[in-house]
Amino acid sequence: MPRKLNASAVDVVAAPKRRVPPKPKSLKDRIVSIVTESSIMLGAPTIKKKLVHDFGLVNSKAFNTNVNKALKELADDGDRKDFGKCGGSYHAGPTSAAYLAHVAKEQEAGQLEAYKREGRVLCYGIKAKAKTTKDRILFILAKATTLVGVPTIKKRLVEEYGLTESKAFNTNVNKALAALSSEQRADFGKVGGSYHAGDASAAYIQHFQGKASAAADEANAQKYMDQGCIQCCHCGEWCPGDCEVGEDSIARGSKYKCFACDKVFWTWISDGYTTGHEVEYKYSAGQLRISTFQLVAMFDFLKRPTLEDELFKMRFTAKSLVRNSKKCEKNQIAQKLKLKQAIEKGNMEGAKIYAQNAIREKTQALSYLQLSSRIDAVAARVQTAISMGNLKSNMSGVVKGMNVVMDSMNVEKISKTMDQFERQFEDLDVRAAYMEGAMNSTTAGATPADQVDDLIQMVADENGLVIAGQLDSAGAVGSHVPVAAPAAAQATDDLTARLAALRKA
């Protein structure tokens, strides 16, 4: 009788570990492993993407060159049985699943051509008679990978079914498309003036994804444009306003230097300074197709600038001043940081220099901002004058009258015309004063003084600021009346005395 063995007496032999094959190190071996694992044929872009994803390679110019070189050498090596090329795609040899699937597809395509010659088509995997225009259109849309328009549908009907394009043919196709559009079909759909094979088709999915991507890109671009950024035309990066280095040679745009690619580009006045261009603005470059009227307007030096032109220049100047003010504020922050570092190092002389620089940048920023505010105020007055369109019509008649009486040199007529001219300006001053008073009263009524004071006090308390006694001295908004300076009054008296002396002479 055999002796029983205890479990403790049996030598337990560990199972051998499964050996994991090492990853290939050479580029050729990596490419062969990628096409071997794939069940379909792969193109060069897919192979490069898998190399980056699976092996952690960096996509660069040298990487693309090496991959293309390795693919060419593998394809030219006729002794290899584990690599092959068909058209622009690659597979793991004639016995691979990818190559066999490709051969089967080619055979199916040949069978499909036979079905076409017999008047039948293979639509959705079902052999069906395709004798009606509707069925033929559905088959064309089922094969399409993009949205198809009416002209393309007619062209493919003529090419694939041997139809003759005529007036009756166009009428039948339009009727078939209208009938399909009116039906609630899962294998047919319409987007704008194009058609697809339903919401689950590759054409519709690609269109939807492209539309969503375009909307996202547009929203992203609008976000950068709202921040005052300009897109570089060389590398596509969005450059902030700090990248501006000056104006072009004819003052019709700005010059920028990209922070990413370090290349120079320009903005043009013709597109509102919103797009980067490789060259500075020129009349021939900004307007490639110039009509006769545009040429006349472009070189009409006798034409005087209008109020709208002056308003545009004022607003552009004010915007430039605000941009310069922001630059000074950033420089001030940088100088303060250097000041802090100098104090930490005990460099008091350098700290004084940085402090002076910070104060100078702050003063310059305030000066730019004040000047921009003054220009905005003048622009508002000009906008008011433009809005009051009746002033232009009234003044035009007066100016014409002045030209006539000046030519005649009739003193009485000149006096009457000048009186009328001054009366027009008095009317303008009265209207402007009335509008300003109405706007001030409306603003004061819409924002009660107690609510304004409460808001200021709340903000001060939140930030630990002390404003005791300052609100009472400030008064209400718009309540201060400007007082004429003594120097201005003295200058007026001097002018009056000179005018009296001239009259005596």
Automatic annotation (TrEMBL):
Gene3D superfamilies: 6.10.140.1230. InterPro entries: Snf7_fam (IPR005024). It comes from the Eukaryota. One of its GO terms (biological process) is vacuolar transport. Pfam families: Snf7. This is Uncharacterized protein. It comes from Aphanomyces astaci.
